[in-house]
TrEMBL record:
It comes from the Bacteria. InterPro entries: Nuclease_put_TT1808, Restrct_endonuc-II-like, Uma2. Residues 9-166 form the Putative restriction endonuclease domain. This is Putative restriction endonuclease domain-containing protein. Gene3D superfamilies: tt1808, chain A (3.90.1570.10).
């Protein structure tokens, strides 16, 4: 049975300000800072754009777990997955399901860059880091062992087409 408590927003934020987000990476638990308004906005904006541009050709998962390996389960900000949606009703997405993975990073920039090695090892074909700190898009492609062979930097106003959808440039800023 659940117990119900009543709070105002200010009291709720004050009480739970220290609660962090957790990820399991190579058997270790990492806690990250709670997400702020810029991060929330960037994720929502990208989700809306991806849904509009890709429609039924992809499944968009927002801040959901990805089963990378028996000891790693990160929660990337956005996953562009192979359809149909119904295949994920009884299992979490796995590396072979991912067409594009997007991390939005402000306070988590170093942490998100460290995860690149895990994504490459798992064979994720393409990872984007929306770098809110420097207002850049970092594009990583072609995994090889624990790194990506190609790294590209895009500036605001430049759109990028994912490898899986070469004729669908996506504005990221």
């Amino acid at each position: 049975m659940a117990t119900r408590y009543r709070f105002g927003v200010e009291e709720f934020e004050r009480l739970f300000q220290g609660v962090k987000h957790l990820e399991l990476l190579e058997g270790e638990i990492y806690e990250t800072s709670p997400i702020g308004p810029r991060h929330v906005f960037a994720v929502a904006q990208l989700d809306k754009r991806l849904q509009a541009l890709l429609g039924e050709e992809a499944v968009i998962a927002v801040q959901s777990p990805l089963r990378l390996s028996p000891d790693s389960e990160p929660e990337p900000d956005l996953q562009v997955l192979k359809p149909p949606l119904e295949q994920y009703s009884e299992r979490l997405p796995e590396p072979q399901d991912v067409l594009l993975l997007i991390e939005v990073a402000d306070t988590s920039l170093d942490h998100d860059r460290r995860k690149l090695a895990l994504y490459a090892k798992a064979g994720i074909p393409e990872v984007w880091i929306v770098n809110l700190v420097e207002n850049l898009l970092e594009v990583y492609r072609h995994p090889q062992e624990d790194h990506y062979r190609l790294r590209e930097i895009l500036f605001p106003g430049e759109a990028k087409a994912p490898l899986a959808f070469p004729h669908r440039p996506i504005p990221w800023s």
